[in-house]
Specification:
This protein is α+β, with helices and mostly antiparallel strands. The protein is about 15% helix and about 25% strand.
Length: about 110
């Protein structure tokens, strides 16, 4: 599998570029946690805490919102039209050149 490029804008407006294998098996929350970008992921990635909210800045076609993700987003602060939970987006080839911003803390 080819490597992909992800552009992550942290809470200090600093762009962090990662080149990673598209088949790494991680989701975006796990990548942000391992890179120490301030994403907590308290619930471990099951859409229960919202501490991994991000804003998708590119036009990539992502997986549909699950009911759990939609419910969590409905309860969070700082939600925008392009909000998603990073724990619900698996890293794969289709995310090449994805740009997203980590939302402010809740």
């Amino acid at each position: 599998m080819p490597d992909i490029k992800l552009n992550i804008i942290d809470r200090n407006s600093i762009e962090n570029i990662f080149i990673i294998p598209s088949d790494c098996g991680l989701n975006l929350m796990e990548l942000c946690k391992s890179a120490e970008l301030g994403v907590e992921g308290i619930c471990g990635g099951i859409s229960l805490c919202g501490t991994c909210q991000i804003y998708i800045n590119s036009t990539h076609q992502l997986s549909q919102l699950t009911e759990d993700e939609e419910s969590m987003l409905d309860s969070l602060l700082h939600v925008q039209e392009n909000s998603r939970l990073a724990c619900q987006i698996k890293i794969n080839e289709s995310l090449d050149e994805l740009i997203f911003t980590i939302a402010p803390n809740q």
